[in-house]
Amino acid sequence: MKLIRRTLVAAAALASLAAPLAGFAQDIKPRLIRFGYGLNEQSNQGRAAKFFAEQVEKASGGKMKVRAIGAAALGPDVQMQQALIGGAQEMMVGSTATLVGITKEMALWDTPFLFNNAKEADAVLDGPIGQKVMAKLQEKGLVGLAYWENGFRNLTNSKRPITKLEDLNGVKLRVMQNNVYLDSFKTLGANAVPLPFSELFSALETNTVDGQENPYNTILSSKFFEVQKYLSITNHVYSPWIVLVSKKWWDGLSKDEQKVLADAAKASRDFERKDTRDEAGKALADLKSKGMQINELSAAEAGRMRDKLTRVNAGIGAGIGMELWQETQAELVRLRK
Ligand code: TK8
User: Fold this and answer.
1) Contact (Cβ atoms closer than 8 angstroms) between residue 324 and residue 108
2) Which of 15, 27, 248, 337 is 20 to 30 A from 177, comparing alpha carbons?
3) What is the number of the ligand 1 atom nearest to the C-alpha of 197?
4) What is the pTM of this model?
5) Distance, CA 268 to ligand 1 centroid (Å)?
6) CA-to-CA distance for 324 and 308, rounded, in angstroms?
7) pLDDT on residue 23
8) Does residue 164 register a pLDDT over 70?
């Protein structure tokens, strides 16, 4: 009897010790998560990566540790994606555009002028369509956790303000490593050159390319204003970032650990979108004070660009499948009612 009691007490003590850590790795060493990203620490991407790391550490009681590594120190987007697939790196955040070679459905987000505003983008990305596209990554060895905002993209260059379609003629423009972008800007008359983001600043500085396109936040945080004179507000496409996990590594986590990461990714998404939008709201004034000459593309000229890109849109529809394309168009009609 005594022995049984003692065993029970010991078991209860053990259980209570283990309780707060239930489901987490029981070894002394915390799980180390390398979370790579392309921009610098002072960017909206860097701030949100830091927020994500803090959330994970807090929610896991220090059992999971995120090392956020920026400035493409772990490689540009495309290289990190391969490291995640192979299991050599745990996590990253990067552009959906650079994922198209892996999951063709991601090209949906590259559709020029797809969303009219951030509200539409949030609704579609966080809704069933965005989740369906994200789920496609799994068969390729990646787990998507949340879309962050990169933002509406605008053109900068060192040649001239882009006030009409024809101004793009012959401008050597860096684009992301993605066929839709390449095709879009070739169609608009630019001399489009695909380059990883990590090579962009020096390519602009040495005039290897004349221009690039990115949201205001990135033009600021990556100091493109130092090497670009003209900023033309085109809002030609809304660009999402996506938080990715190596599926190889993810499958070895406990359900509790997976939940910590999924919850932190959602919290970081909300933090990041707000921070990005706050910063973007002030960015134009900042960029002007840094010496950039800013012009806004007229609605008529934006319309001409849109018309020119009809062929590109047809190609995206064919590439991602007409069903997904039409479902998205129908959802946008519904949202705009
Ligand atoms: C950062 C990139 C960047 C993107 C680009 O790694 O390449 O222009 O907008 O945010 O993903």
Assistant:
1) yes
2) 248
3) 7
4) 0.92
5) 18
6) 23
7) 65
8) yes
Token output for 65: 């540790």
Strands (E), 6-48: 31-36
Q: Is the CB of 176 under 6 A from ligand 1?
A: yes
Write the pLDDT tens digit of every residue in 179-207: 999 999 999 999 999 999 999 999 999 99
Whose alpha carbon is nearest atom 7 of ligand 1?
A: 197
Ligand 1 pocket residue status of 92, Cβ below 6 Å: no
As given in the structure block, the two tokens for residue 12 are: 């209860």
Q: Across residues 264-281, what is the average pLDDT? A: 98
What is the residue type of 22?
A: A
CATH H-level superfamily of 30-336: Bacterial extracellular solute-binding protein, family 7 (3.40.190.170)
Instruction: Give the pLDDT confidence of 106-146 residue by residue, as tens digits.
Output: 999 999 999 999 999 999 999 999 999 999 999 999 999 99
Q: Please indicate whether residue 94, judged by its CB atom, sits closer than 6 Å to ligand 1.
A: yes
DSSP state of 188: T
The C-alpha atoms of residue 184 and residue 166 are separated, in whole angstroms, by 14
Rounded to the nearest angstrom, the distance between the alpha carbon of 2 and the centre of ligand 1 is 67
For the chain, the C-alpha Rg in angstroms (whole number) is 23
Show the DSSP H helices in the chain as ranges. 2-18, 44-59, 77-86, 118-126, 128-135, 179-187, 200-205, 216-221, 247-250, 255-289, 299-308, 310-320, 322-336
User: In this structure, which residue's CA is closest to atom 1 in ligand 1?
Assistant: 38
Ligand 1 atom having least distance to the Cα of 213: 8
CA of 256 to the centre of ligand 1 (A): 31
Distances (CA, A) of 150 to 44, 77, 319: 9, 14, 23
Residue 45 φ then ψ, to 5° = -65, -40
Per-residue pLDDT tens for 60-96? 999 999 999 999 999 999 999 999 999 999 999 999 9
Q: How far is the CA of 30 from the centre of ligand 1 (A)?
A: 31
